[in-house]
Specification:
six-stranded antiparallel beta sheet; six-stranded mixed beta sheet; alpha/beta; about 550 residues; single chain; elongated; about 15% strand
Length: about 550
Amino acid sequence: MLTELHIRQFALVDEIRLELNNGMTVFTGETGAGKSILVDAMGAVFGARASADWVRHGAKQAALSACIETNDARVLTVLEEQGIEAEAVLLLRRVINTDGRSRAWINGVAVPLKVLQRIGTICLDLHGQHEHQALMDKHYQQQLIDQSIDSAILEAVTHAYRDFKSAKRALDEGTQQLQQSREREAWLRQQLQATEQLDLHLGLLEKLEYDVAAGSHIVQIQQAATQALDYIDDAEPSARDLLVQAAHAVTAMSDVHPALHEAAEMLQQADVLLSEILPHLRQAEALELDASQQAAQESRLNQLQALLHQHRCDEPALIARQQDWQQQLDALENAAWDEEQRQKVVEQAQRRYTQVAQALHHARLDAAMKLAAALRPWLDRLALVDMRVRIDVQEHQKAEGWQAQGWDSIVFMLSSNLGEPFKPLQHVASGGELSRLVLALKACGATTNTPSIAVFDEVDVGIGGETAWSIGELLAAMGRERQVLVVSHLAQVAAVADHHIRISKASDHERTRTTLTPLDHSERQQELARMLGDASAQGVQQAQALQQRAYTIMKQH
């Protein structure tokens, strides 16, 4: 309950301190007196988006504070999260600067603005003349139906949907992994094939480079071998002939001097060595070029060099990678992938979701019929006799339409006049009709867990007569369960209120100020007479008659 509201330097308000009570309180006044300012102030103190225009002209800042009494566990949770000691009485305070920025406090502790907004969501139900637009939102319409359904049914659908999505995700991820594995397997096979074709082993690069170089220089090799043979054995005299002559000359005197003896033995060894050189030279001289083999060796060398460049490694590292690729390929070939089992899990989850979604669908159909029937008497009382309400619950059984809230789409359908076809609510209802429809929904208990403070801003615009009495009766009845604050132009509505506050505007030739004045019994009569358009004695008598009827109506409740 909102027990006190303090407004300072806000719009046309200089300073107002307003004490409020339980039940229904009505705010009345001339057009332009500042009734909307009061609604804006209530919204602001509960975290509504700030406007720089809210700061009174000439002031540095606007300040608002509200004292509320609540024992709602959700509020206590918010306080605990902010490290604020939980109390049954809260003081909310907000200061708004001329640049539109603001600061907020709860019980003297600075808090982010979103904390005030959370408190406001829990405690304040603010219905402006255009704020009933929420009723046209399809999600809100669904909430109106679902809040009367057993929570176990709703939770079963949520859990089944979560299980289905989890199973489907596991199947999709497995399929994706399988595709990636197949792509990886193909790549590994390609790399292994390339290395296996080379018969890769340590020293292969060096050998290929040597063989290719030898084939490329075979003519020079033959020429070198022929020339060496000529020098050593074929020339006149040859190196061997000269070596024999030298050995003969030295051997004759080798027994006389040890140095000649050593020289003679080395000359004999040199002759033996030259004899061993000759077969190698003749082999080189006899070389023949195999063009196809040379081409194959060059191709093999080019492939090996290309692989080393591609993988940016040397020969030992490439051999190590070949072994690693083979191990990866073996692991992929042996990996277990049970697509059939995962598909079975998906099918089981689908069947489960179908069962619980169907159960929710039938529960919604029943709830929709009951709500439409419950609205009928209240619509009649609110002068909406010709309005017909039908709540369509359409199921979408294809998986593309599945949601955690079921597979239904819920649409409030209206026909405002006899003979007119049903159309979606947002395409048919006027603002006044929507306002009264909101009241009818509240009256028949369609909206549960409502905040303890309800503010209605000109919800009775465009109506009068007996309908006005019905609206006043409904608002007063709500005031028995929670605090109801109503801004109204109708004397019938004002007459049934428990408390009456007049909003007025005055000027002292320099500044204009809005004031709020609680009215006593006689002052209420005068205000009711003004609202009836006759402030004379006869108007006061009419006001008294209104009060008497209001007393009789409320006594019945």
